[in-house]
């Protein structure tokens, strides 16, 4: 079957890189990107539409116009911004998802991708190698909305047989597109400031370990999950996906190997610390490995080398 993809929230960190990979795989004419604003660049053969996922009738017209076989819903408010606007975060993260799920049933859209997050875990979840199935008591509104979203995904799969697939993304590190409003954003900011000023003041404390993933791995993993035969997908809430795990102190040490005069300092207090403290330090992704062969390729050293090599020419 010829695939046609509509991506919602395509201007964000993951969307912009995933969209180019999907255009490469399926052809630019078969990937329609959308967001609430025009993207900063758009090539001649790329199709883009302005859409707000909360406007259900506009969303319906978009789906009727392009008749997608797959929808990637990436519009979301991330953890730190969501704490400032909890109602808006809930509205976007949950009602946006419900609009897509309902329209998928109504218009017979076959496959959906929706991103969850490590934010679904909480203070009573195991900290190290956090299991796919364990206590989940998120304390951030972002985590609460992602956990509720996971339950909706599983419900729509079991009740209506919707082929919905999802990944609990850790912090995603990339050099092409900046993230916005996340707790893990320091792991990108640090490279930009290291190259510009040779110093960085981190908003998380030196020994806060968090799970992270390089964008190349995140894009490849997402496409591998979407390509896997439906029979191999045993999890319809969202898959744990591991990459690397490190602290601000460890990434600073790695940067110093390439930029020896780099200096790191830490703020006394930042509200994002409480969010980070409630999240896992590392993730057990055995199900993703068993079900669809997931293996990350980038470690901290190769991430650091690649980030610096690519940012050097842009910063
Ligand atoms: C955030 O920090 O909010 C995101 C996430 C881990 O989902 N990067």
UniProtKB/TrEMBL annotation:
Ranges where the NAD-dependent epimerase/dehydratase domain occurs: 5-242
SUPFAM superfamilies listed in its UniProt record: NAD(P)-binding Rossmann-fold domains
InterPro entries (UniProt xref): Epimerase_deHydtase, NAD(P)-bd_dom_sf, NAD(P)_epim/dehydratase
Alphabetized Pfam families for the sequence: Epimerase
Family to which the UniProt record says this protein belongs: Belongs to the NAD(P)-dependent epimerase/dehydratase family.
Protein name as catalogued: NAD-dependent epimerase/dehydratase family protein
